[in-house]
Amino acid sequence: MSNTLGCNIRSFRLAKGMRQEELCEGICSVSQLSKIENGKVQPKDEHVQAIAKRLGMSVKQLQVTEARRDQIEQEMKFAIQASKSNHERQAITLIEKVIEEARNFGYEDLCAEAMYQQIHFYDNLGEWPQVIRLSQEMLTSGMGLEPGLSLDLWGELGTAHYYSGNLNEAFRCYARQEGLIDGISTDHPQALRIYIGYVANQYFMRRYREVLFYCEKAMPLAIASQRHIYRWRLSNIIALSLNRLREDPQRRYELLESSLQEAEQNGNIAEASQYANNLGALYYWDQDYDNAQRYQELCIRYYDLVTDAFIDTYRREPYYQLASGFIQKGQYDQAKQIVEKLRELCKGRIDSYMYNARIPQLEAEIARVDGRWQEQVQSLKQALEIYERHHVYFEAQETAIRLAEVLEGRGELSEALQMYRRAVSYQQKLEETRLPMTI
């Protein structure tokens, strides 16, 4: 009998949390069991039968486990393929079976991988309560998760909190990732994917230098492995980070234009839509509102061709950018039309709170131009209330300062002072979001 049996005995023993003494008591000596597990001796049939019984399985299960592992791995591939084909419910049904079988056969590594895939499938469906529950279960399971998987799980949990309307909890999850990323070297088998997920979250926290540092580590991996989509996405986030830092304008445009062109040439409309949207944002930041409009309208045309649920998360952004551009150009009627379209897209979506706050901010700007300062103040207060409710402290701070400036300009000094104080309190809360989350 090959060493497969010994390895399987050891795997099942460890999976059940049994010491060698517990497994071999009344069957054989600890020394004999150790030799069996290490393949140094061939166990007697009666020993195998007794060990299998104590482990709660048949002798056949012990002997054919490796073949069963291959089958379980294949079943997991089927589940992943179902997800890629947008059959998420089927994928979830398949992966639940994989989890059960991997657990029954003591494959802790396969079980962990399958559980992570299950979370990812629920993520694709936007079922955030399930993502939160399953992520927390894995993180507290005591399964001995490797650092890369732990980092991924904190990212999934943070994203689920963000889309569920609690930005503070999202940031605290992303802060937990900061303590794990140093353990992921460039030779980690999943380094590229892990780095990309990490920089996306760090960008969201406005840690642009951190983003650029890890993008520089990830880019050679993307190029060497010819993972073109990852290379485009890295170029995209580098360009956006440089834009936020107001550095190297030529490079940021070149990176995004190149990614857009390659995505279009490869027929990848979902990716192309993202890069068109972000090019529009770059032009908007540089006050080139006509080019910004051109790319936002291109983005919308691409979005209309894509039915992927993933894109639904981003479908509102070009409308917000368009409305902002029309306001800057003084085309207020067009801006109002786009705002109504944006409002319609936000209805019934729990993840719309950012745009639900941005809409009254747009309306406040139109009111300012019309000289309706009281309506401007009310709209800004409405936006501030939404930001505060969802713990969006960056934007809450900016909105409170804007409100204070408007009130101060109208001679409402007491209320203006209150708003400045609130802005300071938001800064303090921002610092608290840097504290890693605990479960």
Range of strand content: under 5%
The CATH topology of the domain at 338-439, please?
Answer: Serine Threonine Protein Phosphatase 5, Tetratricopeptide repeat
Q: Helical proportion?
A: over 70%
Write down how many β-strands occur, each being a DSSP E stretch of 2 or more residues: 0
How far from one another are the termini? Answer: 45 Å
Envelope shape: elongated
CATH architecture of the domain at 338-439: Alpha Horseshoe
Question: What's the average pLDDT?
Answer: 92
Structural class: mainly alpha
Uncertain runs: none
Pfam family, one: HTH_3
Keywords: Coiled coil
Protein name: Helix-turn-helix protein
GO molecular function: DNA binding
Walkthrough of the structure:
- By secondary structure, this protein is mostly helical.
- Among the domains are: 3-63, lambda repressor-like DNA-binding domains (434 Repressor (Amino-terminal Domain)); 338-439, Tetratricopeptide repeat domain (Serine Threonine Protein Phosphatase 5, Tetratricopeptide repeat, Alpha Horseshoe).
- The protein contains 24 helices and no strands.
- Helix 10 (147-164) packs parallel to helix 12 and helix 14 (228-245) packs antiparallel against helix 15.
- It is elongated, with a radius of gyration of 27 Å.
- The two termini are 45 Å apart.
